[in-house]
Task: inverse folding
């Protein structure tokens, strides 16, 4: 699934409300938006209002949009000064209210992006948390409703595996195998057959520039004429 990564960053003037602390991230927290807005609209609304609620990423079927740098916290886990708010990257998956193809595509984009973050930080799958893990809220609601949290994690693990590249077997290259001695012998034979009138054209001086196939073909022609 292909997505476009973009940034629409929270103005620093709103850091005091939405991202007041520096952060060294330790986790990734997964959310469902519980509405049907696009990632662009989610981010626009979040960075322009004066509510405390904030998160780092919104993902839809086409885009992954970052609003807060990963070295700043967000208020997205409802655990106050706990590790969810203070040490995790918040990722909102869009279109979860109605579900359907758009949501499925958004969720797959989230899988791919989370996998890339885990590889970037050198983390394992145990670093991926659901909102529910921090304060008990039933979120990400659609993944939980469909009892797919474990399979969601498995998909991330699969996405982290190196892509296997199947290399095509190269065709063996044909190289010249006739030795210089053999070509000199052929050169002498061609000169002799020309002088005897067996060949009407003297090919002896061209032997050195001939390919093996051309030289062997000429040799066979001479042999046939002398039988």
Result:
């Amino acid at each position: 699934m292909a997505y476009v990564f973009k940034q629409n960053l929270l103005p620093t003037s709103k850091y005091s409300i939405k991202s007041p602390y520096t952060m060294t991230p330790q986790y990734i927290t997964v959310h469902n938006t519980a509405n049907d807005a696009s990632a662009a609209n989610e981010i626009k609304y979040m960075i322009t209002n004066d509510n405390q609620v904030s998160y780092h990423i919104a993902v839809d079927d086409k885009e992954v949009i970052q609003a807060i740098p990963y070295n700043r916290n967000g208020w997205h886990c409802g655990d106050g000064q706990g590790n969810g708010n203070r040490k995790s990257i918040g990722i909102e998956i869009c279109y979860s209210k109605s579900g359907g193809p758009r949501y499925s595509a958004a969720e797959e984009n989230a899988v791919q992006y989370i996998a890339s973050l885990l590889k970037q930080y050198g983390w394992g799958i145990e670093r991926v948390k659901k909102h529910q893990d921090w304060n008990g809220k039933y979120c990400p609601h659609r993944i939980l409703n469909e009892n797919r949290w474990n399979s969601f994690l498995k998909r991330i693990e699969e996405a982290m595996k190196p892509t296997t590249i199947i290399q095509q077997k190269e065709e063996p290259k044909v190289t010249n195998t006739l030795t210089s001695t053999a070509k000199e012998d052929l050169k002498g034979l061609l000169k002799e057959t020309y002088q005897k009138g067996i060949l009407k054209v003297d090919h002896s001086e061209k032997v050195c520039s001939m390919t093996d196939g051309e030289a062997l073909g000429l040799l066979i022609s001479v042999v046939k004429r002398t039988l």
